[in-house]
């Protein structure tokens, strides 16, 4: 299916209209969803732009500019928590009668209400502090531009009075150059099957359990997926199901069950395996049994979308449907733990239901290949890589610590390379809207709540975004180690198909801001350890006070390693070893 990149045309039209209305000053907190707008600004010869990673700060920067010049500034942010961070500046502008335009990028309609990443309710978000608000949903090329202009005309100068909010839905692909559109998001909605939903108070009836097992046992190529949420079930019934059905078991690292990744049936590096597009087709599945919901891995969603499974049975205690790929065929709302135990009990009556384990063997072979390549020290550099860090971190983490992982590249690398040790009881991340804001404060709250030492692994931009929260360490008696993985800015954008030259990409997105970490540590009375590359010894000492560890990540080597692994973790390469 081919989609025209209407998002790019829409963004160019909107920026052109804003220019015609006299808006020349743009304050930008970058994100991928807002990249069509930023690319349009980069092409402009008359737009003035200021870029900063912190939306709260960029909002007040625009406020100060508006106060001083009496001009109307436009603030551009991405979807998710970015809007919430603008609220203080919006409230101040409203009560001081300052004119400003807020432009937020939004997800398309089909991603709302199903648990999609960085997706929340943004329409008229700033009410009652905006005088006017306009929501433009993700449109198609058939939408008359005149209708958009008419709607904008009522929002923009000379009609703009006070704070105005323009919320725009952008659908992938954003650009003509974007080849990475997930198949799960291009599946026409009319292909969606009628989903059989059964609500149970706590337990499913025996007939329902028998039906689920009979449906699953029809297919040789299937997987069991366990998400972050609503997945507090016993591991051993799941292992039983995996063995009897001959289906591999894939567990998100934030699920409580991820600590059982050393079991043969569990595919520890499924996210890394599925990041290779060739594996998506060679491992194509017919059936999925899903427990809980929410996954870090976008590759998993692409895999589901491309496979178009004949059976996708979802067992959850959560009533809202989290059907990201519009692929569910059966939903069972009940106690997931009781349902899995009952399914395993039923499966034991049919121990030979799967006489062909070749499909699960393929996954296990790839998983072993991934583990071997991750543990090899193939590349020499004075600096480390994110994948190396998370692969080597797991065995060196001491018992009794909690772990927090920051968003962006950190959590993505952890999903691919981190093999959660059995003794790690607590692992956290802010995945509700996956923002980089507030990660330091969240970590301090976790340590205080659990009353236990805590390690936080976060990127340099994430660290900078919440720097002021380090003040709260003085009231936290439980030692915290902040491990900053410094790859010199928002390098995640260098891996996305944004058609800008290197200079513009660095200015609008990477936005590297050198930090004097030694001064930061001294300011907040922290021990300081700068490292070139990774040494597991940093986790072997007993923490006596709050500590800041900075590891320099080689951004070029980091991306090279990822490409190397993707290229070599394939069935073809595995067979040749």
From TrEMBL:
Catalytic activity: isochorismate + 2-oxoglutarate + H(+) = 5-enolpyruvoyl-6-hydroxy-2-succinyl-cyclohex-3-ene-1-carboxylate + CO2
Top EC class for this record: transferase
EC number: 2.2.1.9
Domain Menaquinone biosynthesis protein MenD middle: 218-376
Sequence ranges assigned to domain Thiamine pyrophosphate enzyme N-terminal TPP-binding in this UniProt record: 10-118
Gene3D superfamilies per record: 3.40.50.970, TPP-binding domain
The keyword Metal-binding appears for this protein: yes
Record-linked Pfam families: TPP_enzyme_C, TPP_enzyme_M_2, TPP_enzyme_N
Top-level taxonomic group: Bacteria
Cofactor, free-text remark: Binds 1 thiamine pyrophosphate per subunit.
Obligatory cofactor(s): thiamine diphosphate; Mg(2+); Mn(2+)
Job description of the protein: Catalyzes the thiamine diphosphate-dependent decarboxylation of 2-oxoglutarate and the subsequent addition of the resulting succinic semialdehyde-thiamine pyrophosphate anion to isochorismate to yield 2-succinyl-5-enolpyruvyl-6-hydroxy-3-cyclohexene-1-carboxylate (SEPHCHC).
Record's subunit section: Homodimer.
HAMAP family per the UniProt record, alphabetical: MenD (MF_01659)
NCBIfam families reported for this sequence: menD (TIGR00173)
PANTHER family attached to this UniProt entry: 2-SUCCINYL-5-ENOLPYRUVYL-6-HYDROXY-3-CYCLOHEXENE-1-CARBOXYLATE SYNTHASE, PROTEIN PHYLLO, CHLOROPLASTIC
Protein name from the UniProt record: 2-succinyl-5-enolpyruvyl-6-hydroxy-3-cyclohexene-1-carboxylate synthase
Organism in which the protein naturally occurs: Aerophobetes bacterium
Lineage start: Bacteria, Candidatus Aerophobota
Gene: menD
């Amino acid at each position: 299916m081919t989609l025209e990149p209407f998002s790019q045309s829409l963004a160019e039209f909107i920026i052109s209209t804003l220019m015609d209305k006299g808006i020349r000053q743009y304050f930008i907190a970058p994100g991928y969803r807002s990249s069509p707008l930023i690319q349009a600004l980069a092409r402009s010869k008359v737009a003035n732009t200021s870029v900063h990673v912190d939306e709260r700060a960029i909002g007040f920067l625009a406020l100060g500019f508006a106060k001083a010049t009496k001009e109307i500034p436009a603030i551009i942010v991405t979807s998710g928590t970015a809007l919430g961070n603008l609220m203080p500046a919006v409230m101040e502008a409203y009560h001081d009668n300052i004119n400003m335009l807020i432009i937020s990028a939004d997800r398309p309609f089909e991603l709302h209400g199903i648990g999609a990443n960085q997706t929340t309710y943004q329409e008229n978000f700033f009410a009652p502090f905006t005088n006017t608000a306009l929501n433009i949903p993700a449109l198609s090329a058939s939408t008359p531009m005149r209708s958009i202009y008419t709607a904008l005309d009522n929002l923009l100068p000379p009609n703009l009075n006070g704070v105005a909010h323009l919320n725009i839905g952008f659908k992938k692909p954003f650009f003509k150059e974007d080849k990475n559109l997930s198949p799960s998001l291009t599946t026409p909605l009319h292909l969606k099957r009628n989903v059989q939903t059964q609500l149970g108070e706590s337990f499913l009836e025996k007939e329902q359990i028998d039906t689920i097992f009979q449906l699953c046992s029809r297919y040789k190529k299937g997987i069991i997926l366990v998400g972050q949420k609503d997945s507090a079930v016993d591991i051993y019934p799941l292992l039983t199901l995996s063995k009897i059905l001959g289906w591999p078991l894939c567990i998100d690292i934030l699920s409580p069950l991820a600590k059982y990744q050393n079991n043969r049936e569990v595919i520890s590096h499924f996210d890394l395996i599925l990041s290779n597009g060739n594996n998506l087709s060679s491992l194509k599945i017919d059936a999925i049994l899903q427990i809980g919901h929410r996954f870090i891995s976008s590759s998993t969603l692409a895999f589901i979308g491309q496979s178009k499974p004949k059976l996708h049975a979802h067992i959850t205690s959560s009533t809202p449907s989290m059907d990201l790929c519009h692929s569910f065929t059966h939903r069972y709302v009940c106690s997931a733990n009781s349902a899995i135990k009952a399914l395993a009990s039923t499966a034991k009556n049919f121990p030979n239901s799967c006489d062909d384990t070749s499909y699960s063997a393929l996954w296990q072979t790839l998983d072993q290949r991934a583990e071997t390549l991750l543990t090899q020290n193939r590349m020499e550099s004075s600096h480390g890589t994110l994948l190396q860090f998370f692969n080597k971190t797991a065995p060196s983490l001491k018992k009794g610590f909690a772990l927090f992982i920051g968003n962006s590249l950190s959590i993505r690398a952890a999903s691919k390379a981190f093999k959660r040790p059995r003794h790690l009881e607590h692992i956290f991340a802010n995945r509700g809207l996956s923002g980089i804001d507030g990660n330091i404060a969240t970590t301090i709250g976790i340590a205080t709540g659990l009353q236990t030492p805590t390690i936080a692994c976060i990127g340099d931009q994430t660290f900078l975004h919440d720097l002021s929260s380090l003040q709260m360490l003085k009231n936290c008696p439980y030692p915290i180690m902040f491990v900053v993985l410094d790859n010199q800015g928002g390098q995640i954008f260098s891996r996305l198909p944004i058609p800008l030259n290197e200079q513009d990409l660095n200015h609008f997105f990477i936005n590297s801001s050198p930090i004097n970490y030694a001064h930061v540590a001294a300011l907040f009375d922290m021990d300081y350890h700068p490292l070139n590359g990774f040494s597991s010894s940093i986790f072997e000492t007993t923490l006596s006070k709050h500590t800041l560890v900075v590891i320099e990540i080689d951004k070029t080597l980091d991306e090279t390693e990822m490409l190397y692994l993707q290229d070599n973790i394939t069935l073809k390469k595995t067979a040749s070893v």
